[in-house]
Every structure is written in C-alpha cells, then in structure tokens.
Amino acid sequence: LLVACVGVALVLSFIWLIFLRLFASIMVWVSILAVLVLLAVTTVLFMVKAGRIDVELVDKVVNASGVPLESVQVDQEVSFGIGIFFGVLTVVFLLITLFLVKRIMIAVAIIKEAAKTIADMPSMILFPLVTFASICMLLAYWLAVFMYLASAGDFDPNTMTFSYG
Fold it and tell me: pTM above the 0.70 mark?
C-alpha cells in the first residue's frame, strides 16, 4: 500500500510539473488573486459582524454561499478589531504584490525552467529518495548500537564501570 501511494504521488507530481510548465504564470497569479480575495472577504465579513457594513449589501451574497452568519456570536468591538487587522493585511498584501510584479514574473520564469529541467532529467526526482533511504539505514544502525549499549548492564558512575548480571 505504501509503495502504491508513493507511485501515485510520483505520477501526480509529474502531472503537476506538466501543468506548471504550461500554465505557471496563470497558476501563480490565480493563487495570488485567491489569497487577495480571501483576505478581502474575511475583512468584509468581520466588518458586517461588527455592524460597520450594511448587512443587506452582503446578505444576498452570503445567503447564496450558504454560510450561516447569524449563528456565530462575536463581540462587535472584537469583530471590528479583527476586521481592521484583516483590512490592513489586505492592503499590505496588495501593495507588496503590486511592487513585486517584476520579481513575481522572474519567479514564474524560474518555475518554468525548473519544470523543464525535471522533465528533461526525471532521475532528479529519485535523488532525495536515495538520500532518505541512506539516512534511514544510518538511523537503524545507530538505534541497534544504542540498544546494544543500553542492554550492556548497569553503569556505576563512581567506578566508571559496567556491572553485568
């Protein structure tokens, strides 16, 4: 079962690399946009709970999503504070994203090249597995040595010797 799971994970990782190679910029920008939207929605929801935004404006959207806002009871001052925190976080995230557009595009190009490299040399995927197996064998050896030492007898710290039996 474990080998099958590793095989499935390996196949899915290659499929993910193909998607990254073809749609890297779309995937990165959709992820950034999703985080921005999530932060903005969280801000709006906390401001609604604080009573700072009219409920009727948001009520239609919330009812369509199926989120029961009425069942959650939160202090209005706490909600307002959390709403301000998420609002500031949203603005900071938006500004950082706007200022780092060039670097994000460079990162997208690097992701595309890394995906091409792994597609050209798939044996690079196996290198960490070999390292992991080597570390596991070393750990097994040291555990065996530890067990032998632990079962060697009782240690007398006064005489600095072991007593057997």
Answer: no
